[in-house]
Amino acid sequence: HCIQFDITVMYATIQVYIRCEIGLLNSISDLLDLLHTRVAYFSKPE
Question: Where are the domains of the chain?
Fold first, then answer.
C-alpha cells in the first residue's frame, strides 16, 4: 500500500513537472515568435 501511494505521488509530481516544462517551452516559443516578427517588421525593406 505504501509503495502504491509513493508511485501515485511520484506520477502526479512528474505530470505536474512535465506540464510546467511544456508551459515554459510554449512561453519561450511565443517569445521567439514575437521577437522574430518584431525583427522581420523592422528589417523589412521600404
Answer: 1-41
